[in-house]
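Sample entry (277 residues):
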Amino acid sequence: MKKLPLVGAVCAATLMAAACSSTESQVPDNCKSEWNFPTVSSGVLKVAAVQQLPSVDVSPNGDVQGIDSTLLPDFAMQACLTIAWQPLAGPAAVSALSEGKVDIGAGGWYKTPARGKVVGQTDTVWYDSPAIVSNSGYRSIESLSGKKIGVVGGSLFEAPIKEAVGDNNVVVFQSIDAVFQELASGRIDAGLGSGAVLTHQVSTRNSDAKVETLSPDARYPKLTSPGEPNYPYTKSNTELGAALNSFITAAREDGTVRDALEQNGLSAPSYFTGPQS
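Predicted structure, serialized as tokens:
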């Protein structure tokens, strides 16, 4: 894939991670874009970054890490655009996309029918599986019966796990950090969430907790169906969607996506192929 020199990013986030100013890659004067599509600001690709590793994290001093910090700069360079990262919480990111204030969303967004009604959704970039993290090695929804389970509020897992095991057995937290803190203290028995996120957390914390991915189960489709991270975009910008799909196809074929996954600790083949492959 054609690559252009990347100078770097400087992004200053507010304490609420709601705003960002950035100076980004310098595009050569003779750059020829692989695609033609409009952007919110001429010459700039504005990215709403929902901060959650291993997908993406933008630090206050502008350091960007994660899977998307490899893939989206590649896309921007091939489109002859600078890239501006804007850290936003999930609901704010959806609003920014639907209102045309940013171009693309980053941060491991699962494709869902509900999201598809308000934003455009690309082809699948990689695959994720819901998982349980615990000190006891719980492997199934049934094994969580009668246990205290931690989940991040507002996540795709909150409503279905409450339905499966009962509200009284589910403890809702503001962040995945809080889930791990309560698990370490013994105040909850397990946490439920993205397998990629839980695996990353266990690794970076040097935790002895066990992460067990959930196999698809027809009884609990919302809790066990594989997730398909993609790059959402403003729904009306179909040219951008087509360009992203072209990039994703090439990046999967030439190994760029697989390399980005492995560099961020996701070496299991299922993250690239999907658990059913």
